[in-house]
Specification:
Blueprint lengths: L4 H17 L8 E3 L2 H10 L5 E3 L14 H9 L2 E6 L7 H6 L4 E5 L11 H19 L3 H27 L7 E6 L3 H7 L2 E7 L10 H14 L3 E5 L5 H10 L2 E5 L13 H19 L3
Helix pairs in contact: 5-6, 6-10, 8-9
């Protein structure tokens, strides 16, 4: 039987187009604004690759996207953003992209949600739902991966709570270089008595008057520890330490280089707890 050559050409064209597409999501990626949320999102998605717009080691508050970054955003299936004003340099670009944005924190909330593992665990169901809906991954598999991550986060919370529980009550107060440890302090019953920068952003500025007022509070209250974001803008905080005789402790808030002790979310949070624990205990003579 003779075959119609035009029909063959049509069938081949349809087959090639389908093979090239490989399904509705192939060739399109999930993006996260930060490396930390890229890790968490990929874990919930059972290892599905998730790239970060902001490179490791880059201040989240000051990052500004390139034209290539904007193109990646527009071509992505989904963007997972921290929210709460953390990615200030991305606000206009995120507002302009047609890609759906899933924000973990509302615009009025403290953006440092990742410093509280229980709050992260509570944010996972909504994240899993949007991953299933937008990416088309198997719901049963995603739920199993979410539950595994939830269990890890709750175990991590117990470990940090037990570590910090031994810090004496009179030494559980500290000052921070900006409003960064509120969620961590609330979860683990520490008290942040004041901040060098009255802002959630490390890009803010302080005044000499405000710095002197905070120094007076520290002297009057006997505050002897200033927590400073590792790699942040810390000149004012270190001047305050010199003025008051307080000890400074550099704490990680962001993921470090891959393979380093702070290169994963769990490792970063454990390092944060260990460094604060050591600084607070040393002031107690421990």
């Amino acid at each position: 039987m003779r075959q119609n050559p035009l029909l063959l050409i049509l069938l081949l064209s349809l087959w090639s187009g389908t093979a090239a597409c490989g399904g509705p999501t192939e060739g399109r990626e999930i993006l996260a604004t930060t490396p930390l949320w890229a890790e968490i999102t990929s874990t919930v998605a059972c290892g599905h690759p998730v790239e970060s717009l902001i490179p490791r080691g880059t201040d989240h508050h000051g990052f500004e996207p390139s034209l290539a970054d904007r193109g990646r955003l527009d071509a992505a299936l989904l963007v997972v953003a921290n929210g709460g004003g953390l990615e200030g340099g991305l606000d206009d670009t995120l507002a302009a992209t047609p890609t759906p944005i899933h924000r973990i924190v509302g615009e009025d909330g403290d953006p440092h949600i990742w410093l509280d593992p229980i709050s992260v665990a509570e944010a996972l169901p909504a994240l899993a739902e949007v991953i299933i809906g937008r990416v088309g991954l198997d719901p049963v598999a995603v739920e199993a991966c979410r539950l595994d991550l939830d269990a890890m986060l709750r175990s991590l919370d117990v470990d940090i709570r037990e570590r910090l529980a031994a810090v004496p009550a009179e030494r559980r107060r500290l000052v921070t270089d900006h409003a960064m440890l509120g969620r961590f302090a609330d979860r683990y019953r520490l008290e942040v008595l004041g901040t060098v920068l009255e802002s959630h952003s490390s890009m803010a500025e302080t005044s000499a008057h405000d710095l002197e007022a905070l120094a007076d509070v520290m002297r009057n209250q006997g505050i002897a520890v200033i927590a400073i974001e590792a790699g942040g803008h810390d000149d004012d905080a270190r001047r305050l330490a010199e003025r008051t005789g307080a000890a400074t402790v550099d704490v990680p808030l962001l993921l470090g280089p891959e393979g380093s002790p702070t290169g994963t979310y769990e490792g970063m949070l454990r390092s944060l707890a260990e460094r604060l624990d050591g600084a607070l205990r040393s002031q107690a003579g421990g």
